[in-house]
Amino acid sequence: MLLIPCPYCGFPRPEIEFRHAGEAHLMRPEEPASDEAYAAFLYERENPKGIAAERWRHVHGCGRYFNALRDTVSDRILAVYKPGEVRPEVAS
Amino acid sequence: MADLMLTPRNAWADLTVAEIPGATLKPSPTRHRVLFQARERELETRMKAAGMAAPPAILRARMMDDVALLRPGPDEWLIVSEAEISPKWHEIAGPGAIEISHGYAGIEWCGPRVMLALSAGCPLDLHESAFPVGMASRTLYGKSEMLLWRQDHARFHMEVARSYLSAILAFFGETARHLPQS
Ligand SMILES: [Zn+2]
């Protein structure tokens, strides 16, 4: 089982306690915004092969949302950080 | 009809508990629960003003007077009590608190093989170095979400949504068939 460190609980927890919640750092476009800007906000995703910034929720634990950097090739979680914190630098 | 509405049905009615040597599971006498959200600093100030000790750290539980205060999340607090929760505690919990007494059931797990029985359904490391006495965390048992509080080396308190109780007891019964003997 994949272990995911929760930044609130402070230690690795089993993956089945978590829910994936999509790409992190998506910003709602400022009003007034074009249809294209909204389409990008709603539908366009990075989907990288490599390091992805994602939101996760510790739903069967502390209940909190947080961000994680995950390598989509190796499935390793490289860093976790709280919402509002700057995305950390990691080596792939 | 009115009577049925006013008298909560016992969550354990019509349910049977499997017997596993060394791991006993029974209804907890805790009947009252209040859940609330508060920042730690804010709550500490309120509790200090009421002449109480500091609230517990995250994922910890603390007995305070006649109630237990659990902290399953950074700003989330659960008061669990056998007796009616006093007005003093309601005041501390604040106006946003929710009374969830009838929505949940408390289960007492105890016995020398209780860790083994729990581990059959719980993905957390329950060794005392990872889950020490006094720790309390929401997690899973089988497919059911629950809140687990270690009260002693071989004694746990589990809080579950009452609608999950039958699933939890069924899973516990299943483990009886798979646990190693002795
Ligand atoms: Zn957590």
Written account of the structure:
The complex is a heterodimer of chains A (92) and B (182). With 92 residues, chain A is mostly beta strands. Helices cover 10% and strands 33% of the residues of chain A. Chain A has one helix at residues 35-43, and strands at residues 3-5, 12-14, 19-23, 51-57, 65-71, 77-81. Chain A has a four-stranded antiparallel sheet, with no helix packed on it. Helix content of chain B is 23%, strand content 32%. Classes of the chains: A mainly beta (92), B alpha+beta (182). Chain A binds chain B through residues 1, 8-10, 13-14, 16-17, 60-64, and chain B through 58-59, 72-74, 76, 123-124, 137-140, 145. The structure holds zinc ion.
- Give a count of the beta strands of chain B, DSSP E runs of length 2 or more: 10
Measured by DSSP, the beta-strand proportion of chain B falls in 25-35%
Let me know the average pLDDT of chain A.
Answer: 95
Low-confidence blocks of residues of chain B: none
CATH level-4 homologous superfamily of chain A: Folate-binding superfamily
SS class of chain A = mainly beta
Sum up the overall morphology of chain A in one term: globular
Helix content of chain A: under 10%
User: What is the CA–CA distance across the termini of chain B?
Assistant: 50 Å
Number of helical segments with 4 or more residues of chain B: 5
Radius of gyration of chain B: 17 Å
List ligands, each type once.
Answer: zinc ion
> What is the average of the pLDDT values of chain B?
94
Identify the CATH class of chain A: Alpha Beta
Strand content of chain A: 25-35%
Number of domains of chain A: 1
Give the termini distance of chain A in whole angstroms. Answer: 22 Å
CATH class of chain B: Alpha Beta
Main beta sheet of chain A: 4 strands, antiparallel
